[in-house]
Amino acid sequence: MAEELLDIQPLELKFTFEVKKQSTCVIQLGNKSDQCVAFKVKTTSPKKYCVRPNVSIIKPKAISDFTVTMQAQRVAPPDLQCKDKFLIQGIVVPFGTSDEDITSDMFAKDSGKYVEEKKLRVILMSPPQSPVLLPRNGELKQDSSPETSLQKDRALSGVENIPPGDGVAANAEVFETAKFADELTETKDLQWLENAKERDESRAAKGVQMFGTTNVTNKLREAKDVQTFESSKDIDELISAAEDEQSRLAEDASELKPAKDILELKLAKDFEELKLKLNVMDSQLREAEHTIRKLMEARKLATREKDMLKHELEEK
Which residues have C-beta within 8 Å of that of residue 18, sequence separation ≥ 6? Predict the structure, then answer.
């Protein structure tokens, strides 16, 4: 039989169950071997629980914890019975292995390694009962007699309350609860006064805003009338200026017409001169090409004669 790798404490996951509230449980793992051990945590309800960390490495003879958080549930199971299970797997890994090196294949049973497995069940517990407060002389006080408390509760409301426990801690808790209730009442009253004050200030600001808006509207209307009068005056001035500009352009056009004719004649003359120059350059280019062709033929002929003379000299 292989040596036991992990010591698990506790062997059950106990959660205090309250509707729409999360609950947390801590499990401690101890490495009993002289080697590094990697562990992995699995559950039958992965969407219901959050495990941190769910994989890690424990050094020899060291201790490590992981936290299991049960998500908030909308309804309570019947009789707080839970069938969820957790499985803790452990394997031996070489020294120097990090958490990032851990893979799911390392915990497969067909890998040939020894995989230690331990199952933990889930237990749900009800939350602890809070102490019962009774009114006495306008104050909340804890009743010291359970039987008297039960009789008074039945007579006042017809509902049986659970009697609180005895002791100094219970009395202190009752006092703190009553003090907290008074502070809540004072806070609520102050908040109501602040809200009323904000409403009054909002109404006053709204009235000032309406008065200011009316004044602004009147001023805008006056400004609009003045602007309309000034706009009409500006339009007349613009029409007159446009007519003057139009007559000036007509005069300028009549003056520019002779200059335009002169410019066209000059451009036509320059075009003819350029055309003649291009014809001259074209004829010169043709003569140059003819000359180059003759020189190339003469060069070929000279090269041929040179080769013939060289050949004759070699034969002699």
Answer: 127
